[in-house]
C-alpha cells in the first residue's frame, strides 16, 4: 500500500473483523475487491490479498480474545498447527479438516458456535452463486434501463436503390448539431471495422435518424432487411471474437511480463542473499585469520618454553655427569685404597671388573644423553618446520581473502549493473533481447558464485588439514617431552 500505509492496514483489519462477524467462510480475493471498492484504496487487489494472507498466518493466531480469534481463524481459513489447536481446545470443542482448517468450533460455555465447509469446491460454488446473482442483478438493471428509454421519435425509412433524395426534415436534423455528426461518424467507423460496406450492392439503403443513433447501442433499432441484418450480425460477431482474441493475447503478454518481472525480482533477492552469504564468509575468514595469529603467538611462546626446557635439561645432564664423575672418582679412590692392602688376584680382578662396569655405565649414560640431545634438536627442527608451514598458510589465507574481497566487489558491481538492467526493464517494458541479456547475466553470476564456493571449500579443507597436522605434531612433541 502506498501513502498512509499504516492507516490503510488498520482499516483493512477492521474491515476483516466486520466480515468475520458474519461467521461464514470468506473468499479472500472477493474480500480484497470489496475493500478496494468501498474504501477506494490505491493498492492492487493482489497486494491486498497477499497482505490479508500474511495477516491471517502471522497476526490472527496471536489475538488474545478467544471469540474474536476463533471467528477470524474460521472466516479466513487459517491453517491451525498443533500448538494453536491445544490452545483452542482449552476453551472449546474444535474440529479440523484434512488440511488443518477449522470446520467446527463450539465454545465450552455455549457463547459461540461456528460451522462451515472449508473445501475448495464449496468456496468455488459460493463464488459461482455470487457471480450468478450479480449477473441477474445486472440483467434486471439493463432491462429496467431499456424500459425507461424514451421511444423513438421517428422510424427508419427505406430508400430504393439509386435514389438520392431524402426528406427535408431528416436533412435538417442531420445538419442541426454536433451530436448527429458524431453519430454519423461512429456509424461509418463501425462499417469500416466490419470490412468496408455492411450491405451488398443490391440491398436497400437504410437511413437511421440522428436521434436514434444518439441513444447508443442499447436502443432498439428498426430491423433492416434480413440479408443486411445477417451479414452485419456475422461481421459484428467476428469483430467481437477478434477483440476477445486480442484482449486475451494482451492479457497473456501482460501476465508473462509480470511473471518475468517477478522472476527477475526473485533473482535479485537471491543475489542479495548470496552477497550477504559472501559477507558472512569474509567475516569468518577474518575470525580464522585472528585465530591463526593467536595460534602463531602461542606457537612462538611454546617454542621459547621448549628452548628454555632444553637448556635446563642440558644443565641438569651436565650436573648429573659431574656428580657421577665425582662419585665414581671417590668410589674408585675408596676402592683402590681398600684394595691396596690386598694382594689377592681375585681382589685385583674384582677392582678391574668394577672399573670396567663403571666405565661401561658412564659410556652408556653419555650415549643416552647424546640421544636425548639429538631428539631435542629434532623436535626443535620440527617445531621450526611447523612454524614455517603456519606462516605459509597464513600468507596463503591472506591471498585468498584478498581474492575473495575482489570477487565480492565484482559481484557488487554486477549486482548494481543487474539492478540498472531491471530498472530499465521495468521502465521500458521487457523485450526478448532484454530478457535474454538479463538471463545471460544471471547465468554468469551463478557460474561465478559456484566457482567461488568451490574455491572456498578447497581452501577451507586445506586450512583444516594443515591446522590439524600442526596441532598433532605439537601434541606429539609435548608427549615425547
Automatic annotation (TrEMBL):
It holds the Pfam family SPK. Residues 176-189 have a biased composition (Low complexity). Residues 229-414 form a coiled coil. Residues 135-203, 449-481 are annotated as: Disordered. InterPro entries: SPK_dom (IPR006570). It comes from the Eukaryota. Residues 8-116 form the SPK domain. Keywords: Coiled coil. Residues 166-175 have a biased composition (Polar residues). This is SPK domain-containing protein. It comes from Caenorhabditis brenneri.
